[in-house]
TrEMBL record:
Protein name: Type-4 uracil-DNA glycosylase
Entry keyword annotation includes Iron-sulfur: yes
Uracil-DNA glycosylase-like domain ranges (all copies): 27-177
Gene3D superfamilies: Uracil-DNA glycosylase-like domain
The reaction(s) this protein catalyses: Hydrolyzes single-stranded DNA or mismatched double-stranded DNA and polynucleotides, releasing free uracil
GO BP field: DNA repair
Amino acid sequence: MEQMDGLDVVGCERCDDLCDSRSRIVNGVGPADADLLFVGEAPGANEDEQGEPFVGRSGDVLDDGLREAGLDRGDVRITNCVRCRPPDNRDPRKGELTNCRDYLETEIDRVNPEVVVTLGKVPAEHLLERDVAVTGEAGEVFDITVAGQPRRVLVSVHPAATLYDPSQKETFEAALATAAEFTDAQSGQSRLGEF
């Protein structure tokens, strides 16, 4: 039986391939009322092993980028479009993204962030429902509707892109700096009105 317990998905068996390849469901981490919600595509091997999104090398890059932007990992929420590791770390398939979409929408609705930050092409295209040129659109904010509510989505390159192409580091850090403009983690006061 599949269900959500708060923000966590428990017992989902919607995708045969993903159920076969996962060792666990990897739910989001971070405050349930975070101003910033970061969304990746799917857990990789490290995430599947540790049960937390964005650990390992990509997680280190994300953590460093957050610090550079004046943010702390503990102050943001981090999740994925798909909560189970695809076989061989392949991109999640359209049907898998669709099967997990209501979990993501429920998490976005319950967290109610000031902005959703997409980390990479897959989550950007999944939420914006169109082709996205991530490097060209990184740092841009788009108004969309998710689960009947208006939401702001900020596009970012994936942290791993900076490992394979160091020229992406500046693009990544600039997107996180834009995300930081939506929140003041130290005082808890949103600066959304200034955007």
